[in-house]
Amino acid sequence: MGSSQSRTIEGNTTIDRLKRYSRADLKSPLKSAFGRQQQQQQQQQPQTKDSVAGTVGHGGTMKLTESTGASDYETPIYETSHRAAALPPTPPRLQSQSMPPSTVPCEYRTGKTLGSGTYAIVKEAIHVHTGRYYACKVINKRLMEGREHMVRNEIAVLKRVSKGHKNVVTLHDYFETAHNLYLVFDLCTGGELFDRICAKGNYYEADAAELVRTIFEAVKYIHDSGIVHRDLKPENLLFRTQAEEADIMIADFGLSRVMEEEKLNKLTEICGTPGYMAPEIFKKTGHGKPVDVWAMGVITYFLLAGYTPFDRDSQQQEMEAIIAGDYKFEPQEYWQNVSETAKDFVRTCLTVDPAQRPTAGEALRHKWLADAEPHFVPDPTRTDGAPADLLPHVKKAFDAKQLWRKATSTIKAVNRMASLAHVDHHALMRENVNKYKEESARENLDVVNITYQQKNTDDISASDHADLVSKIAEVSLEAKDKKVEAGEDK
């Protein structure tokens, strides 16, 4: 996307990009791109470097040229930005076979706002033909200028893991309108992990072990898929429904990365949620999948005591404690009802040296998770040897201030130097972030067309290669057939 504040259209009229347009003034963001493509096909002229709609800037981000009559968003930002620069010009005889993005009426309707993040809001959505409910992440395109790679990366990661594990959230669909990007996920209505625990009447060490085992199995699946999550924390662990036996889901893959061969590919940027970040992230020595195991150690500690092991008065002190591995199982009253086996599991996960830290598979083989009989400390107030209830102390630690939420300001400094170099631009974006998010919330999908980019690669589900428009048509027909069979439709 261009970095200038304005562009010239017909009549040489300058329009401020920050101005809100009425629907009558707003043109489809891809129509002009289609028009030029069709004109090029008719003339059968190869596409040259100068004619490419986007150029690759620093860090691989896409920067669109400011040509007269061009759309601000001709190239959907979820497409790989390197493709235009890396691929040779398409031969003229093949250009007539290229498929432009498909623009169709939207099959979703959005409802109430469920939450708000740094660059996006999350709204409840329904598919109009199937009646199924989803969570829809709405991202204002203006807020993603210079950060397009973040969305492309999140989609690339989710394509790998979606529908592969019941405890990993699925990306069902993604599309764009003139102003926003939409990512359609599972709707998890069961609430966050710790809220569910506090609502229980009792909570035992065996319950904590079962939760950790389930989450670690999902982490192992993510790692086996060549992904490192990098932001595992209680807030990103959601229950699918409010049912007692509902699945717990790992969500929010915004900071995740693809890591095919970890020995040859180390990440060095500082990112994550401070209280759950591993020492090697702060030390910038290179990190990978072991950071997720460290985060699971912090989560386990939290599930057993109600507070995090490195909680300090400042983030500087917290960082120093993490780098040194400085934590204790104190105060004693919070840990007297926790078994030594559970403590050993936490120590193992919180190994400072990532090379000595267990993998997700090795953590699952630890006796706290692998033994058939649960580990626990008997309740001293009972004579039947029943396990002690951890809930009173856990809830006490989880006080009204909700201490674990102090670590939720996620660091998204993917490139600190680049951020400093564009400090004025980012300051402007921060001033307008609430305005843009409000605009995203007001968009009415009843009256807009959406754009799907035609893909030659696998679709979201590895087992389903139908394009998204065809899938919408298929589920619509299936729904109608079911109504006919039930006598509800003729």
Describe this protein's structure.
This protein has 490 residues and is of the alpha+beta class. The chain has three domains: 6-101, no CATH class; 103-188 and 421-481, Phosphorylase Kinase, domain 1 (2-Layer Sandwich), CATH 3.30.200.20; 193-413, Transferase(Phosphotransferase) domain 1 (Transferase(Phosphotransferase), domain 1), CATH 1.10.510. It is built from 17 helices and 17 strands. The protein has helices at 31-43, 83-86, 92-95, 148-161, 193-198, 205-224, 279-283, 290-305, 315-324, 332-335, 340-349, 360-364, 367-370, 391-397, 416-421, 423-442, 468-485, and strands at 6-8, 14-16, 54-56, 62-64, 102-105, 108-116, 120-127, 133-140, 171-176, 180-186, 227-228, 237-239, 248-250, 257-258, 270-272, 411-413, 449-452. The strands form seven sheets. The protein has a five-stranded antiparallel sheet. Strands 1-2 form a two-stranded antiparallel ribbon. A hairpin with a 5-residue loop joins β3 (54-56) and β4 (62-64). The radius of gyration is 25 Å and the shape is globular. GO terms for molecular function: ATP binding; protein serine/threonine kinase activity. Residues 16-28 have a biased composition (Basic and acidic residues). This is Protein kinase domain-containing protein. Belongs to the protein kinase superfamily.
